[in-house]
Amino acid sequence: MFARSAVRALAAPSSRLFSSSAARSYKVAVLGAGGGIGQPLSLLLKSDPLVTSLSLYDIRGAPGVAADVSHVDTASEVKGYAADQLDKALEGVKVVVIPAGVPRKPGMSRDDLFNTNASIVRDLASAIARVAPAALILVISNPVNSTVPIVAGTLEKAGVFDPAHLFGVTTLDVVRSARFLSGIVGAQPSETPVTVVGGHSGPTIVPLLSQTSQGKNITGEEYSALVHRIQFGGDEVVKAKDGAGSATLSMAYAGAKFTNALLRGLSGEKGVITPTFVKSPLFADKGIDFFASNVELGTNGVEKIHPIGPISAEEEKLLEACLPELKKNIEKGKAFVA
Ligand SMILES: NC(=O)c1ccc[n+]([C@@H]2O[C@H](COP(=O)([O-])OP(=O)(O)OC[C@H]3O[C@@H](n4cnc5c(N)ncnc54)[C@H](O)[C@@H]3O)[C@@H](O)[C@H]2O)c1
């Protein structure tokens, strides 16, 4: 069924998706594990050599997903928890990944999800504050620009907020950028990494193509089309799925990739740097205190927030469009937990 190379990649201890520095191993929880993202994400985390134990929680279906995933022949233990077992699911957990919540349907923006997902994320964050206050939290649930401030505000109220421990997962924008750019220049995606800064929705997604050797010469209509595709790539999936949801498989891949990067940083590997949406000083003077930029991941989570670096005139314009929208999204999240 698989090409031999694909089987080798899945079996290899350090495939392109997962590399392992092998020093440590970790208990990871997935909240929303029964969903379109949660299921493949749980499977991919089961294949990550740095994950020793997987705790799968959802308001429906997690024990079934756990029974299924637990048969995969990797060393980690897997346990599933039913709707009334959230606290149990969080016991002893080092990292919590949150893909719980409703996805978009055609015609919806990520902000349209706010009313439903804001309270889901707040309630999960309260449970984390109570049971696993030192856990590192990776937020996938949209709108990320608002759900991350909601988690921060909830933890702050509980007196346990550590900015080094909270991440909005923007990796799918990074994955899409590398993939789309590779198609244009005819290179491997591994040769066309792109730093994506800002936030995670439409105009707040700012790819820094000028900083890449393969992307800096793309100009004119080709540039505008590529930027648009990176910013609105999610819509392609929502439209093609025709009412059945948004990106799940590519998001699971991106979520597993970011989790692996975080675990490598926690294990002491040096130089693990990737874009992610964190509490950031970069635009704090403009009242924007969460921002995605390259972040070095270390033994305590956020090790160093990198500045965005030199950018082109076009990127200045993209940033100008990003900042007011991002500010609005962040304020909406903060107001919800005020
Ligand atoms: N960050 C990103 O790049 C990105 C990309 C794609 C989708 N998303 C977002 O991820 C979220 C999930 O998408 P999906 O396609 O998996 O949706 P889905 O509807 O398939 O799955 C969501 C799961 O969350 C569960 N859930 C709901 N409330 C819960 C609660 N209180 N506790 C635990 N679980 C709960 C549901 O039972 C369901 O199994 C959406 O908000 C979507 O917009 C983010």
UniProtKB/TrEMBL annotation:
<feature type="binding site">
    <location>
        <position position="110"/>
    </location>
    <ligand>
        <name>substrate</name>
    </ligand>
</feature>
<dbReference type="InterPro" id="IPR001236">
    <property type="entry name" value="Lactate/malate_DH_N"/>
</dbReference>
<feature type="binding site">
    <location>
        <position position="58"/>
    </location>
    <ligand>
        <name>NAD(+)</name>
    </ligand>
</feature>
<dbReference type="Pfam" id="PF00056">
    <property type="entry name" value="Ldh_1_N"/>
</dbReference>
<dbReference type="GO" id="GO:0006099">
    <property type="term" value="P:tricarboxylic acid cycle"/>
</dbReference>
<dbReference type="InterPro" id="IPR036291">
    <property type="entry name" value="NAD(P)-bd_dom_sf"/>
</dbReference>
<dbReference type="InterPro" id="IPR015955">
    <property type="entry name" value="Lactate_DH/Glyco_Ohase_4_C"/>
</dbReference>
<feature type="binding site">
    <location>
        <position position="117"/>
    </location>
    <ligand>
        <name>NAD(+)</name>
    </ligand>
</feature>
<dbReference type="Pfam" id="PF02866">
    <property type="entry name" value="Ldh_1_C"/>
</dbReference>
<keyword id="KW-0816">Tricarboxylic acid cycle</keyword>
<comment type="subunit">
    <text>Homodimer.</text>
</comment>
<dbReference type="GO" id="GO:0006108">
    <property type="term" value="P:malate metabolic process"/>
</dbReference>
<comment type="similarity">
    <text>Belongs to the LDH/MDH superfamily. MDH type 1 family.</text>
</comment>
<protein>
    <recommendedName>
        <fullName>Malate dehydrogenase</fullName>
        <ecNumber>1.1.1.37</ecNumber>
    </recommendedName>
</protein>
<feature type="domain" description="Lactate/malate dehydrogenase C-terminal">
    <location>
        <begin position="170"/>
        <end position="337"/>
    </location>
</feature>
<dbReference type="InterPro" id="IPR001557">
    <property type="entry name" value="L-lactate/malate_DH"/>
</dbReference>
<dbReference type="InterPro" id="IPR001252">
    <property type="entry name" value="Malate_DH_AS"/>
</dbReference>
<feature type="binding site">
    <location>
        <position position="104"/>
    </location>
    <ligand>
        <name>substrate</name>
    </ligand>
</feature>
<feature type="binding site">
    <location>
        <position position="176"/>
    </location>
    <ligand>
        <name>substrate</name>
    </ligand>
</feature>
<feature type="binding site">
    <location>
        <position position="251"/>
    </location>
    <ligand>
        <name>NAD(+)</name>
    </ligand>
</feature>
<feature type="active site" description="Proton acceptor">
    <location>
        <position position="200"/>
    </location>
</feature>
<dbReference type="GO" id="GO:0005739">
    <property type="term" value="C:mitochondrion"/>
</dbReference>
<feature type="domain" description="Lactate/malate dehydrogenase N-terminal">
    <location>
        <begin position="27"/>
        <end position="168"/>
    </location>
</feature>
<dbReference type="GO" id="GO:0030060">
    <property type="term" value="F:L-malate dehydrogenase (NAD+) activity"/>
</dbReference>
<keyword id="KW-0560">Oxidoreductase</keyword>
<keyword id="KW-0520">NAD</keyword>
<dbReference type="InterPro" id="IPR022383">
    <property type="entry name" value="Lactate/malate_DH_C"/>
</dbReference>
<feature type="binding site">
    <location>
        <begin position="32"/>
        <end position="38"/>
    </location>
    <ligand>
        <name>NAD(+)</name>
    </ligand>
</feature>
<feature type="binding site">
    <location>
        <position position="142"/>
    </location>
    <ligand>
        <name>substrate</name>
    </ligand>
</feature>
<dbReference type="InterPro" id="IPR010097">
    <property type="entry name" value="Malate_DH_type1"/>
</dbReference>
<feature type="binding site">
    <location>
        <begin position="140"/>
        <end position="142"/>
    </location>
    <ligand>
        <name>NAD(+)</name>
    </ligand>
</feature>
